[in-house]
Amino acid sequence: MSDQNQQPYELSDLYRIRHTAAHVLAQAVLALYPAAKLAIGPPIDNGFYYDFDLGLDDDGRRRTFKPDDLPWLEKRMRQIIAGKHPLVYREISAAEARQLFHDQPYKLELIDELSHSGEPISTYRQDSFEDLCRGPHVAHTGQIAPDAFQLMSIAGAYWRGDENRPMLQRIYGTAWPHKQELKAHLHMLAEARQRDHRKLGRELEIFILDDEIGPGLPLWLPNGNILREELERLAREMEDAAGYVYVSTPHIAKEALYLRSGHLPYYEDEMYAGMEREGATYYLKPMNCPFHHKIFGSKPRSYRDLPLRLSEYGTVYRYEQSGTLMGLLRVRGQTQNDAHIYCAESQLAAEFSAVLALYRHYFALFGIDKYVMRLSKHSKAGLGKKYVDDETMWLKMEDLIRQVMISENVPFVEADDEAAFYGPKIDVQIWSAIGREFSIATNQVDFAQPARFDLTFTNEQGVSEMPFCIHRAPLGSHERFIGFLIEHYAGNFPVWLSPEQVRVIPITDAHQAYAAELTAQLRATGIRAQAMVGSERMNAKVRQAQQMKLPYMLIVGDQEMADGTVSVRERSGIQQQGVAVAAFVQHVKGVVDGRSPHL
RNA sequence: GCCAGCUUAGCUCAGUCGGUAGAGCGACGCACUCGUAAUGCGUAGGUCAAGGGUUCGACUCCCUUAGCUGGCUCCA
Question: Which nucleotide across the nucleic acid strands is nearest to A22, CA versus C1'?
Answer without folding.
Answer: B76
